[in-house]
Amino acid sequence: MTDVYEPLTPESLPARLSTLESVSSRLGTDHTQWSVSEIGDGNLNLVFIVSGGNDSVIVKQALPYVRLVGDSWPLPLYRAFYENCALTRQASRTSNAVPDVFHFDEQQALIVMEHLRPHVILRNKLINGEYVSGLGQFVGKFCAQTAFRGSELSMSSADKKADVGVFSGNVEIPAITEALVFTDPYFDAEMNNHNPLLDSVVSSLRSNVELKSVVQRMLMKFASNTETMLHGDLHSGSIMSTDTESKVIDPEFAQYGPMGFDLGMVTANFLMAYFSQPAHRSSDLDDYQQWILDVIGETFSAFSTEFQRLWKSERTGMLYPTALFEEQGHDSSGACDSLLASIHTDAMAFCGIEMHRRCLSLAHNADFENIEDPGARAPLEARNLNMGAQLILQASAISDASLLIGMAEDFNKRDVL
Amino acid sequence: MTDVYEPLTPESLPARLSTLESVSSRLGTDHTQWSVSEIGDGNLNLVFIVSGGNDSVIVKQALPYVRLVGDSWPLPLYRAFYENCALTRQASRTSNAVPDVFHFDEQQALIVMEHLRPHVILRNKLINGEYVSGLGQFVGKFCAQTAFRGSELSMSSADKKADVGVFSGNVEIPAITEALVFTDPYFDAEMNNHNPLLDSVVSSLRSNVELKSVVQRMLMKFASNTETMLHGDLHSGSIMSTDTESKVIDPEFAQYGPMGFDLGMVTANFLMAYFSQPAHRSSDLDDYQQWILDVIGETFSAFSTEFQRLWKSERTGMLYPTALFEEQGHDSSGACDSLLASIHTDAMAFCGIEMHRRCLSLAHNADFENIEDPGARAPLEARNLNMGAQLILQASAISDASLLIGMAEDFNKRDVL
Fold it and tell me: Given an 8 Å threshold on Cβ–Cβ distance, is B164 in contact with A161?
C-alpha cells in the first residue's frame, strides 16, 4: 500500500489490501479470487463489500469531500480516525452492539470491519413495515451505556479529559451538524430544500423567534458540552438490523456532547418513521404505527433502567461519588432520577430539532423522500414539523415517554395543510 | 538559566534572571543592584517582588506541590503554562484589567509580570472597610467580556475548539476545584476543617440529599462544559485594587467551563465579605455593608449591560448568528436575555457552593478566619452557610440581583445559632 492517500476502487482494492493479514486470514491469501462491490449509499464515504472464500468484510474509506455535494465541499480525512476511536470506545462500553474493527489505516482513512449479515439498514425495514424484535431495548441500552460509561460518572477524570483533548481536533465534522441540524433549517440557507407545499408551515417556524432562540441554546449545549462521547448521528440509517438483532454503525460524527443528544436524535427518526407510515402502507397501518410507538416507549424505558443500573453498579467517576451518598447512608436514586430528567428534557428538544432539519435542511430522510407525490408527503411532513416545534418549546414539560407518545398520536390525526 | 526546573530563592533570583532583556531593561543591567523580596501568601506558588532602578517586576514561579499542604500534595508545574495562556487571552479580551506579562519560561514554570502598584489584595481592603470606586462595574465587565469573547458567540469554532484542546491537558488543577469546592464540603473529607460551633449547621447541610444532588449536578456542569475560558478562581484574593482601580490576577485555575462560574464565585466572596463585617467594624458597619451590596448589584448590572452590548456589536461566532435573527428582521434581544437568565441561574448555584466551601473545606478565607473568637465567628458563618444552601436550592427563582441582595439583608438579621 502506498503512503499517499488514494481512494480505493473495486479494481484497485484487492491488490492494495492483499498484504493485510487481518483481511487475507478471512478472505484467503489469493486476492485475485476476492470479489468487490461498492455499496456506499451514504453521504460521505466509499463503502465496499469484499468477499473471498466463505467470508466477507466491509472496507470503509473516507473521501476528502462530502459525497452528497461533491468536491466543492471538502471534508477532512481525519474523520476516519475519529470513527475508529468511536468504534473502539463503543465496543468496550457496550456488548455486541457495533461491528468489530479488523484494521485501521489512518493515512488511507480506511477501516476494515465486520460485514454485518444479514442485517439491513433499519430505515429500510421501517419503510417496508418490517418488525425488529428487541429494537427499543437495544437502542435504549446502547444510548445509556455509551452515555454513562463515557462520562465522569464512570471514567477517571484524567482519562476522560485526555479523550476530550483527542476529540477537540475534530472541528469540521461537528460543524456540519452545527449548521445543517441547528441553524440552516431556520432560515433560507443556501443548501436547504423543502417540499414547496410546506411553505406556510416553514414560514411559520422561521418567523418564530422564541423557537429559534431555544434551538440556538441547544446548539450551545451541543457545541459546548463534554458530558460524554456521543455517536453523534444516531438515526435509523446508522442502525442495521435483522428481525431479531440490531447493531449501531457509522459513528464518524462522534464527538463529546450532552447525554440526551443521541437519545433525542434516534427518537426523532422513529417519529419520522411513524408519521410517514400512512404513505407506505394501508392494511396494517395502525398496527405498524403502534409498534413504532412501542419501540419509542421501550427505548426510553430501557435507557432509564440501564442508566439506573449502571448508576448503582458502576459509579466510579468523580461525579456523585458514593462517598457523598451511599457511604453516608444516603440514597442517591433521587439524584439519578433528577439527572435522568434533565437528560430527558435535552433529548426532547434535540428530538424536535432533528425532526425539523430532516424536512428543511440539506439531508432529508428516505421515510419522507420516498413518498414521490409531494401532495401526499406534505401533510405527513407538516405533522412532523409541528410536533417538532412543540417538543422544542415544551421540552421540560414532556417529562415522560407516555406524554411523548400521546403527543405523536395526537399530531398523527391533525391535518394542518 | 539552567534547563532543569529549580525553585528560585531571593538569593539565586537576580543572577538567574539577569540575562532576560525584558527584566534588565526595567531594573537595570547590574543585577547585583536588584533587591528581591518573597511575598507569596497564596497557597501554591513562589512570588517575588524584584526591584531595581525606579522600577520593579513580579516574578511568580510555580512549585511542584501545594504550598498550603506541603510536598505530600504534588501539583504539576504546567499550571504556569495555563496561567500564561489565561493572562494572554484575558489581556486580549479585556482592556487594562490584568497585569502585563513580560516573560514566560515554561521549563522554570515562571512568569515575569507587571508589578501592580499601589494595588493591594481586594480581600484585605474589604476586611479593613476600605472603599474601591467602580469595583462592581469593573468585575461585572471583566466577567462579561471574558465570558462572551471566549465563547463561540464571538470566536470562530476552529479557534475555540483548538483552545479547548490546549486546556484539556489541564487535569490536576480542575481536580482541586472539583474536590475542594464541590464535593469535600458535603461530607467529612480528610482535609476539611470547620468551626466546631457550626456542627449543627454543617450536619444539617450534609444530611440534605437534595442539596448534595444539586451541587453534584453543578459539578457536572463545571467539569463537562466548555462555554468559555474561565478565570476559575475569581475571589477577592484574585483581585488587586487601589481606591479607584482594580485588576484581576492569578488565573492559574483557568479552564473551560460555564459562563456563570466566575460571576457566581466572585459574588460569593462579596457576600462573605458582607456577612463577616459585623466582626470587623462597628460605627460604619451599616454603610459599609450597604456598599458591598451595592457592589454586588453593580456587578450583575454591569455584567448584563456589557454582555448585551457585546451581543449587539461582536456576535461573530456560530452561536445565535445574525443570519438567523437580525438579517431576518428579527430582534434577538429576547434570546440574549434568555441566555443571560440561564447564566444567572448557574451563577446563583455556584455562588452558594463557594459560600459553603470557604467555611467547610480546606481553603478558608480571611474574611471569616481573621475573626479570632470562634464564638463571634460562628453566627456570621452560619448566616453565610444557610444563605448558600438557599441559593443552591432556589437558584432559578433568584432571577434578579435585587432578590439576591434582599436575601442577603434578610440572612444578615437571622441568628440561627
Answer: no
